[in-house]
Protein 1
Amino acid sequence: MSDTKKEEIASSLISEEVLENIQHVNNPVLDLPIIEKTYLQSVRSFTKEGNNYIFSDGKAKVEVKVVSDDIIRVRLAPIGVFLDDFSYAVVDQAHEPHSYDVKEDEINYYVSTNNVVCTINKQNFLVSFSDTKGKLMNGDFSPMHWEENDDFGGYYVYATKKAFDDEVFYGCGDKASHLNLRGRRIINWNSDTYSYAFNQEPLYKTIPFYQGVTGGDAYGIFFDNTFKTYFDFGGEHKDQTSFWSEGGELQYYYIHGPQLIDVVKRYHELTGTHYLPPMWAIGYHQCRWSYYPEANVRHVADQFRKREIPCDAIYLDIDYMDGYRCFTWNKKYFPDPKQMISDLSANGFKTVVMIDPGIKVDENYWVFKEGQDNKYFCRRGDDYFMEGFVWPGRCQFPDYTNPKVREWWGGLYKGLVEDGVAGFWNDMNEPAIFGKGTFPDDVRHYYEGYRGSHRKAHNIYGMQMVRATYDGLKKLYKNKRPFTITRAAYSGTQRYSSVWTGDNIATWEHLRIGILQLQRLSMSGLSFCGTDIGGFTGNPDGELYTRWMQFGVFSPFMRVHSAGDTVDREPWSFGPEWEAICKKFIELRYKLLPYIYSIFWQQHKYGLPILRPVAMLEQDVYKNLLREEEFAFGDKILVSPVLNPSQKSKVVYLPQGNWYYYFNNTVYAGGNEIEINTPLDEMPIFIKAGTVMAEYPVMQYTGEKKIESLKLLLYYDEGENHSYGYTDHGETFAYEQNIFLEKHFIQNSTANSVKLLQQRDGLFTEKYDDYKIYPVGLPFEPKNIVMDGVSLYLQIDENGEKYILVDNDFKKLTIE
Ligand code: MIG
């Protein structure tokens, strides 16, 4: 496109009339502190460099970069020199925006895209963001500011934004707080926080990304800074939201909505999504600190099969190693690991083992020797090695911020992979050191050649560790999808791993904290997340364990785990009554697998979060923004876990539309709160009316049974409704070559007819030829059933339920 053409399009983006109506923050009265900070002064000059606009007050510079129609990045250079443009979080820095434009009048500069206007006030340098109708979404309360910092010759950098009266704040990773962060001050500094409490700061992960909703519209801010960061959401000053850092650059992305779900989606465009996990990774997993020796592992596995409770994976915690040396086996406990793993595998179990970052200082240990010989371990400021005590005793630690070290680390998994291990669990990677918390600040890191102290590298240490793990496994497994899980994380970690919420407690309060954390993680880009079901420390009773298991079915990652000094935690450990309920719910997870797999695909491919709070479904009603107990699992299921002992019933808000109660198919009208009974063997689970949902038969592990014909539940609803399904063979990266099948069902129904259309896209061929379609909630008796011109009839299955046998590649089915 020619430049003049571009200009033309650009100028049409925003009319003069709209410009006059753009809202922005006006000169506030500043109450400056005694310790002098430097604030941006009036704008004195403006230049354009490619997509970037640079504004200067004579000394400091601010860069405004148009990333896309919905994303604008702002950077501050206190003395006019920007830092190298490098990020561990952002995948693609070089987005080509469609069109953008800059204009000015007496008061402001306006950088605009098709959807966003960024206003820079000439007099006070306040930066504001509005939509193209002029509605202010987010704006500076005071100009960006900084403080020279003699500690290390850099700056503390600060941004202070206006907080609107009605504004609600979400996001920020694993915070154990109410979903709405308003009034909270949070700290990001990855920490090993055994038995953490409600509202404790900081925790294991650093996700410096929040969303704001004001006047029914949403936006996000991603403050991409790896130093210790702080956010205050109207906590100190009711009308201000601030974020700041102890170093690095003031650099943030404004991400436009106006729908919350689109903000999350666009954040995923910046930071990536999780690859499609192997099918077995979304089954049920059993873990314990620790299952050993071998006989115990085999016993647990046998019990699952004997009791017919589905399970796909068993975990080995640190005790499988020889003296906690990573990549070794304790031969006393596990004399023949290969045989054990292959026996487990023949029985349908995958084996997942733990790997920590601390490498034992031991001249006779090959991993230590290799790391030492190649200078792979982190060093202090005086070049002496960073040493700390963890499980193996005295340890040194790889510098995962060096690509060479990551390459080496990835290769170390070779032996365990050859032994048959299917997944890896990276723990203690905040990094955690006994007694001292973490590394001292002066530890040096390579930081992809940009170099930095531990102050800069701390929050990405765990992410780079699991990145090394993932990259190595991807090579070792050839085309097979790895499974990894990490405790520490920074924004973007979803590209390499799933996460869990660390050492929680077996209390009802922690069950509640867990549902908040998982919703929050899902809104923060880490959709593949789970809690230690049942609680890590302390002892649950059967009821708490069982209610937590029910929530676990709707946790993206479903794993029971616990500390070694607690009571047994297998699904049968609390007696037959609880076992039966746990079994029923684990079976439910397996029935839902095709649906769960599809929502993982939607996450991977389209950046859609897996857990969606009611706020994400109906953000225009203020009251909904504060609901935090009910949430959607994908786009078709709404749940509200039971969070109290002896609870007989629960009030649940159902979003607009009709909903089928899962256990008896009663239909409830949404847009209302309803009260639902909560007997121990049920929980509030609702399926959106209009949905077409695939269901697997119960299997003891994924892939155990060949599907003869796929069961589809057709939940009747009047009007037009869309459902999406995804399928492939479940194991390799062939989906990157389009070897998959995306299915789109369109149900168009009236009071006396159902029309169902199917569209299929992709190159995968299913192993079965037909669907068994089970109509649910039909308001009429079908007389005429026609599939692609062929007449069919209702059949009755062994349970007396009615279904229609239909070709799996049918295009149109009518039921009248
Ligand atoms: O210092 O490996 O959060 O899941 O069982 C404790 C032992 C180390 C902490 C993890 C937990 C794991 C435990 N680990």
Protein 2
Amino acid sequence: MTFQEFNFKDTLNQAINDAGFKEPSPVQANSIPIILEGHDIIAQAQTGTGKTAAFGLPVIQMMSGNKGVEALVIVPTRELAMQVSDELFRFGKTAGLKTATVYGGAAYNKQIERINQANIIVATPGRLQDLLKSKRITLNPSFVILDEADEMLDMGFLDEIKNIFTFLPAERQTLMFSATMPKQIKILAEQILNSPKSVTITKSERTNTDITQKFYVVADYERDDALLRLIDYKNPNKCIIFCRMKKEVDRLSSYMTSQGFKVAALHGDMEQKQREHTIRSFKQGLVEIFIATDVAARGLDVNDVSHVFNYHIPFDSESYVHRIGRTGRAGNKGEAITLVSPNELRTIKRIEKDVGTTMVSEVIPTRQEVQSRKDGDLLSKIVQTEVTPAAIDMVKTLQHDLDIVAIAHLLAAIVQKEVDVKGKDIIGLGQEEIEKLIERAKNQRGGDSGNRNRRGRGRGRGGSGGSSRGRSGDRGQRSGNRGERSGNRDRNHRQNRN
Ligand code: ADP
Ligand code: MG
């Protein structure tokens, strides 16, 4: 299928071309004809599958451009408001359409001025409700779009949304887009949509095949080591590390900074200016690692995030889908990596079932493995490097005192230091151990004794500490490496206290 088949006007085809879109994504191919026919729609497709254009293109196609605010898009967060309005601006500017972004924290007068000049507004629920209730603005849009509806629900905006709709004309086309479809969203859809058609991108289409999903089994105290080792090994371009709590985001940020990484923390209660600034530096590559809570990173659209790390597995499947959707965007490949403790394996199984996906277990590479890889890279870099006159001079100077082999050894020692892999040799469980645990988790499923067992373990010893200590004993020679990285023990203490 091509975009030509929609018979869009020339200005719109031009914009699609400029955006570099070659062919419609599944949610676009399915939704656009329905919207063009004038139907209400409820569409579900995974994040990163192009939902913005799925409503943006047909709505822009149908807009007259001379009627004030003709399209109203409601999104859950300010970041999304900016992202979505950027994208709609791109599609609409060739037709001379003006876009305004409406969110809390900005000055009223300027915002209202911009709304009055706009054809499309993209708004967050709080400020929009505020403007409508206080009668600072009245709106009469022909198109109303509720984007990322499940996130609205998560962020507690249902009441605002319902209230906003009391200020909108009954005669309108309403479109609802969401990555997941919780029950409350379906109920809301019945209230605000009029005989909607539904589009559901089926599981296999919905699971973004550009994202490889892996998990590693580690003891709780090994999470920091595991994370560093994996980052060392995978060498991500940009990555996002997800934590469950803000407290953990802060701790991990200072730890990663102390290890020499360029990181930035992102949590929900940051000042808007600061958040925008942080996101910009991530996009520009000044920051290579984002450490974030679920809410803070919702909807974040950065195209070249190569890896998502779940420092802890999220509590629910929907969060998992949202988290991993930050990578593998716009046709790029991505990898989602989850660290779990042995007693979290059931959660893996549950998420796999809910999401209709498979996560593959892997063993964390040993220090030796990572070292060999990096040494190999270094050797090929050395042989490929061009010799400079300054280098020749330097060797000449050194040759006054040293023979050529000694010089080579010294230089190698200097460059080799750069690729030195830190940490203990073995981190986390081996493949056989993981398989045994998975087997055990399967057998326990649903059983009464299994439940009791799990609860007891969780409370008593703080997770898997006990069992993994036993394990490193089993692994004999490997266990000797435990204390090698200085500060290791210190970190464990800190973690236990948290
Ligand atoms: P969603 O809302 O489903 O999470 P977005 O609308 O944010 O996804 O789109 C994700 C990315 O994919 C954006 O950068 C967007 O510009 C890009 N994109 C959307 N549709 C296409 C397409 N047909 N071809 C190429 N890239 C696309
Ligand atoms: Mg979206």
